[in-house]
Write a structure and sequence with these properties.
The protein is of the alpha/beta class and 715 residues long. The chain folds into 3 domains: 6-219, 3-Layer(aba) Sandwich (Rossmann fold), CATH 3.40.50; 240-405, TPP-binding domain (Rossmann fold); 413-500 and 530-565 and 613-651, Thiamin diphosphate (ThDP)-binding fold, Pyr/PP domains (Rossmann fold, 3-Layer(aba) Sandwich), CATH 3.40.50.970. The chain contains 25 helices and 20 strands. The strands form 4 sheets. A 6-stranded parallel beta sheet has the order 3-2-4-5-7-6, with helices on both faces. Strand 19, helix 24 (628-640) and strand 20 (646-651) form a beta-alpha-beta unit. Helix 9 crosses helix 14, helix 11 runs parallel beside helix 14 (369-387) and helix 16 (424-434) packs parallel to helix 24 (628-640). The longest helix is centred in the C-terminal third of the chain and has 35 residues, at 680-714. The structure holds thiamine diphosphate and magnesium ion (MG). Residues 446, 536-538, 564, 566-568 line the site of magnesium ion.
């Protein structure tokens, strides 16, 4: 095993605040020589309930208010699993793969805003979670992953299923702990949960040695955290706020560029208030779809490689970008040096490392989006009441024009499949049209994901779960499981709250009035919000085993597979940029007679896998749709079934394309609405001509002023 990383000795450092939590201070230890267990420490100095570390872990999760946990057991985490029983206060969901446990916890976190929790074993159990940890880091998802580790005395011996989990996760997690002492468990859990969910959210790993799980300790709650140096800034100071308000008040072509950070901050109300106060257009990243309703005409949709023409046109031609919790990622900016070339930038983000990382802002604001907007909107309104609001009529005229002429609705002749299969874009629109408005949408990664983001009507925040920064195929099904667990939990809690309200109203009418306004009435939600997964045939096969978890946990979801028989997104790039050489992108799972050249129709290995049979093998209802009539009926049937998972295998056109598209590395000005059609080029030319004219006028004015000064000094 490699040398310990700096954090590996973490749980054995001396504890300055120990006295305040009823724990005696121990002398500093190293990871190689574990601290004496609480049982061997002077008992008189310890207070609290005596138990094992494993029991303390379960109790800590309960005391943190964790209600749902995902995972798979194994030798190095078995004491923790032994501590789970009927009395355990949280629901435990046994997945079929640790990657899925991580993604399910992510789906749960994205739908609730609370950290998701997964518990897995050491070695392969831990490494199987790596993709989900990396995914959570890229998309700032609050996640706590607890991994088993060999006993502290065995570390470095290549013991069975030993791996350096802290070393592996250190560069891809927000924080990683190695716990060698049972007594540390409640404090480390408190800290991990806090770190995961505060500031810029992210994944925290707790690698828990077997000896810490079996060791005895004295449990007390609450715990004082020892996190010197960790205190995320949430409030902006007054000066930058007034600078930002001033810039907004001076802008005639402003754009609100909203990223996942705004969603994580729960800032949808505040974003709406800013939009209403300023009449500004809004564009969002993939992660922020739903931050304000699509039905709000200020919403120009998604920007980026497959963003709307109006959204991309707005950003490219803006004079002021207000970036809220957004990363200026390459998928959004295209060629960075040509991104929004004439715009000043106000960048608001809770993570100071994001500010100026890709684009230097004019006004940097470090803080929590919701908190900062709560403070910024009144500043803007104060300026408006003194000076009047800025007239954005001309700006909206340009954007409305782009919106009307270049809609992303796929209704052109070339969108029609030529082989009699379904149009995948039509399927997504039909799914959205028939959906319960409370639906939580989840996607895999590929063309289907982009069509879902473009064509589903999002009206509420936290109803769109998608792997954005990492683009993790296989995210979909486990994330849908996590979302369904979350919606079931929300439903139970709402029902309980309604019950409390109704019993309160029976005894005391004065309290029930205020309580009734905050809690949804039982009639508002008669079942948990449904979850629709829109997945690709390729993505689905990466984690399809989770159908078993979904069946046994009775957490039904609805699954639409846009089966184009190919790795469609990669194939689209091959069509456009690699001479239509379709190397390694054929899946054949929707091709008849494929997979076995010698097979005669009806006998061969076609349709492998047969998604309908696969669904049935896992206790789900499996349906197939090859025509629009079949599709409409299948969607209706799926929406009507609440007690079982329904999977629909939609046979869609493999040559369908995602448009618009900015080819990787290109300027957004070159966005293709379709092949050969670049609607923003003219607008960009006009913009640059106007800028050049402005610059000339400015230079002339400068020269005239200089001449006047020279003349005066000659006199
Ligand atoms: C784990 C992983 N492996 C490979 C890729 C590269 N990749 C991106 S999209 C894609 C194809 C996705 O195919 P499918 O799920 O069928 O969706 P489609 O594009 O056909 O809608 C691939 C292979 C990835 N994003 N993630
Ligand atoms: Mg596909």
């Amino acid at each position: 095993m490699a040398l310990p990383t700096p954090l590996q000795a973490f749980s054995a450092v001396s504890k300055p605040n120990a006295a305040s939590v009823g724990i005696s201070a121990q002398s500093p230890q190293t990871a190689a020589t574990p601290a004496p267990s609480a049982a061997t420490a002077p008992a008189a100095a310890l207070t609290g309930e005596k138990m094992t570390g494993a029991q303390a872990l379960v109790r800590s999760l309960e005391d943190l208010g964790v209600t749902d946990v995902f995972g798979i057991p194994g030798g190095a985490i078995l004491p923790v699993y032994h501590a789970l029983n009927e009395e355990t206060k949280f629901r435990f969901i046994l997945t079929r793969h640790e990657q899925a446990a991580g993604h399910a916890a992510e789906g749960y976190a994205l739908a609730t805003g609370k950290p998701g929790v997964a518990i897995v074993t050491s070695g392969p159990g831990a490494t199987n979670t790596i993709t989900s940890i990396m995914n959570a880091q890229m998309d700032s998802v609050p996640l706590v992953v607890i991994t088993g580790q060999v006993g502290a005395h065995q570390i470095g011996t290549d013991a069975f299923q030993e791996t350096d989990t802290v070393g592996i996760t250190y560069p891809i997690a927000k924080h990683s702990y190695l716990v060698t002492d049972a007594q540390d468990i409640p404090r480390v859990l408190t800290e991990a949960y806090h770190i995961a969910g505060t500031g810029r959210p992210g994944p925290v790993v707790i690698d828990l040695t077997r000896s810490a799980q079996t060791g005895e300790m004295f449990y007390s709650w609450p715990q004082r955290m020892i996190l010197p140096g960790y205190s995320p800034t949430t409030h902006a100071h007054g000066k930058v706020l007034s600078q930002a308000a001033r810039l907004i008040q001076q802008s005639f072509r402003p754009v609100l560029y909203v990223g996942g950070g705004a969603m994580r901050s729960g800032a949808s109300e505040q974003v709406q208030r800013l939009v209403d106060a300023t009449n500004m257009p809004v564009v969002t990243t993939l992660n922020a779809r739903g931050i304000i309703p699509d039905s709000d005409t200020h919403n120009l949709g998604m920007i980026g490689m497959h963003g709307s023409i109006a959204g991309t046109g707005a950003v490219q031609n803006s004079d002021l970008l207000i970036a809220l919790g957004a990363r200026f990622s390459d998928r959004v900016t295209g060629k960075l040096s040509e991104f929004a070339p004439r715009a000043r930038v106000i960048h608001i983000d809770i993570d100071p490392a994001e500010i100026g990382k890709n684009r230097e802002p004019d006004v940097p604001i470090v803080g929590d989006i919701a908190t900062v907007l709560d403070e910024l909107v009144p500043e803007i309104q104060a300026l408006q009441s003194e000076e009047g609001s800025v007239d954005l009529t001309n700006w909206w005229a340009l954007l409305d024009d782009l919106r009307a002429n270049y809609p992303s609705d796929y209704t052109r002749a070339e969108d029609e499949p030529t082989d009699g299969s379904l149009s995948p874009q039509w399927v997504v629109k039909e799914l959205s049209r028939q959906a319960d408005p409370r639906t939580i949408w989840v996607a895999g990664v590929g063309q289907h994901q982009m069509w879902a983001s473009q064509l589903v009507d999002f009206e509420r925040p936290r109803t769109w779960l998608s792997s954005a920064g990492a683009g993790t195929m296989g995210f979909g099904l486990p994330a849908a499981l996590g979302a369904r667990v979350a919606s079931e939990r929300a439903y139970v809690e709402a029902s309980e709250a309604a019950e409390v309200n109704s019993s309160a109203s029976a005894s005391d009418t004065s309290t029930s009035v205020s309580a009734a306004t905050s809690a949804p009435s039982a009639s508002e939600a008669t079942d948990p919000a449904p979850v629709w997964l829109i997945d690709g045939d390729g993505s689905f096969q990466m984690t399809s085993q989770e159908l078993a978890t979904i069946f046994h946990e009775n957490t039904p979801v609805k699954i639409a597979i846009l089966n184009n028989s190919v790795y469609g997104m990669v194939r689209q790039w091959q069509t456009l940029f690699f001479d239509q050489h379709y190397s390694a992108t054929m899946l054949h799972d929707g091709d008849e007679h494929a997979g076995n050249a010698s097979a005669t129709p009806g006998e061969g290995f076609f349709d492998v896998p047969d998604f309908v049979k696969l669904a049935e093998a896992y206790g789900c209802v499996g349906l197939r749709a090859t025509t629009q009539e079949e599709a409409e009926a299948a969607i209706e049937q799926a929406n009507a079934i609440d007690d079982r998972t329904v999977l629909i295998d939609f046979r869609v056109w493999k040559d369908a394309m995602v448009w618009p598209m900015v080819p990787a590395g290109n300027s957004n000005d070159n966005v293709l609405f379709r092949l050969g059609e670049q609607p923003l080029k003219n607008v960009a030319m006009q913009r640059e001509a106007a800028a050049a004219q402005n610059a000339r006028a400015q230079a002339e004015a400068e020269e005239a002023a200089q001449n006047a000064r020279a003349e005066r000094s000659n006199l």
